[in-house]
Amino acid sequence: MKKAVMLLMISALVAGSLFANGQQEAAADETIVLKVMGYGDNSNQEGISWKRIVETFEAENPNIDIQDELLYDEAYHQKVTARLASGDVPHVAYMGADARWGAPWKEAGQQYDMTKDIDTAQYDINLIPKMGPKGERYYIPMGTSNMTTVLYMNKNLVESMGFSQPKTYEDLVAMVPAAKAAGIDVVSIDGADGWAWGSCLMSALVARTTGDLNFVSKAVAGEKSFTDEGFVAALALIERMVKDGVISEKSVLVDYGTNTSNFNNEKALFMVQGQWAAGSIENPNVKDDMVLMAWPKMPGEKAAANNTVAAAWQVGYGITKDGASDPAVLDAAVKFINFFNSEAEVEQRLRDGAIVAPILKGYVTPSDLPNAVTQKVLLAQSAVECEVIDAFLTGDPNDALNTGMQKIASGLATPAEVAAEVEALARK
After folding, report:
1. CA proximity to 318, closest of 303, 334, 331
2. Would you call 53 helix, strand, or coil by DSSP?
3. Domain 146-312+377-426, what fold?
4. 121 neighbors 157 (Cβ within 8 angstroms)
């Protein structure tokens, strides 16, 4: 009888063990769906790299299914708003902590503090800023400083016309006759994109004419006014540049792709864009010798703001609260973000010109970087940083400013009128 009981007990233990192992294997085989919003499109480096990263990650992690949506520019921001409003919240998304890249997630209550999930063996935690009121870190930045008001110079083309790197605005004006005779622009900007006027031009001009590197945040807080003389003077510089021929009045018809194409194809001596555009310049006659610089000394510039460029922290990928609510999804999300930020991928983004300084722990910058990357590093080291407008100004006031600058460039509004509209909307 005792032997029979013992055999039954052993059989039960074996059966239980087999059942438990079966459950573990089933759990291991279970597919985890990870909903991700990626930034880029099929024609730019960000989008091409994104697709490759997703495919490689899925191949190495067959139990994780990345259901990604890849969008770029304003289409991305619009879709973020739409998905959050409908409750279709992604688990991982391209985001930031400022007004433009962070506000939608904050307003939807979807910011998740990733601090405890950050692998300090992979990342230098000191290079990841504290983003929330209690030191929260909502995403992993792709790099450190993100310069938005870069003036790209085609060094060979400028010198072929008998000029050199401009030190003052008047030096740019002096290039206008020769550029017109050659049928090219002096400075090209994607003026059809409202954000480009604010992020890539006005942000630096405001600091120059007010002498205050933090004027925008102060104006948003009500400590300054958008009708202050210095702010109106910055808007007036747009009017002056168009009048002087430094920027074409037709620039309001030029989109991002056309702007970078014009510079790449030597149809402009200079281009206004952010540092990220460096990766879009592929013509060796341009990229191998181009110079990335701050705007030269501008009319009415205050000494306190010489050599300023607008800059903010890099955006990156973060996890939403919905994504963090399921432990299995959270684990998959962390694994994917770490894969996205692996040393090989970070170095590729560095070489492509998408970032300036990686946030990886102990990372040593290669000595054989392309000219565009070297130029960005030099600019970041030498320039004085000021605020990016849409990191603080959002909604109707920011929209009015962007549209207003287009109107100024087209001769449809005065700087004072635009400033008054922005101020009125900011105080509502």
Report:
1. 334
2. helix
3. D-Maltodextrin-Binding Protein; domain 2 (3.40.190)
4. no
- Looking up tokens 């503090």, which residue turns up? 113
Q: Which of 277, 311, 293, 275 is nearest to 96 (CA)?
A: 311
DSSP type of residue 249: G
Q: Measured on CA atoms in the order 149, 260, 355, 324, is the torsion positive or negative?
A: positive
CATH architecture of 32-141+315-352: 3-Layer(aba) Sandwich (3.40)
387: Cα separation from own chain's centroid: 14
Environment class of residue 148 by beta-carbon count within 10 Å: exposed (0-12), middle (13-18) or buried (19+)?
buried
CA 36 to chain CA mean position, Å: 18
Round to whole Å and give the CA distance between 158 and 179. 9
Digit-coded pLDDT (tens) for 220-229 = 999 999 999 9
Predicted TM-score (pTM) of this structure: 0.78
Cβ burial, residue 221 (10 Å; 0-12/13-18/19+)? exposed
DSSP result, 260-282: HHHHHTTSEEEEEE-GGGGGG--
How far apart, in whole angstroms, are the C-alpha atoms of residue 172 and residue 185? 11
- 257-294 tens-digit pLDDT: 999 999 999 999 999 999 989 888 999 999 999 999 99
What's the CA gap between 62 and 65, in Å, rounded? 7
Q: Is 222 within 8 Å of 208 (Cβ atoms)?
A: no
End-to-end CA distance of the chain: 88
Residue 9: how many other CB atoms lie within 10 Å: 10
User: 3-state class of 39 per DSSP?
Assistant: strand
Rg of the Cα atoms in the chain: 26
Torsion over CA of 103, 108, 109 and 110, rounded to 10 degrees? -80
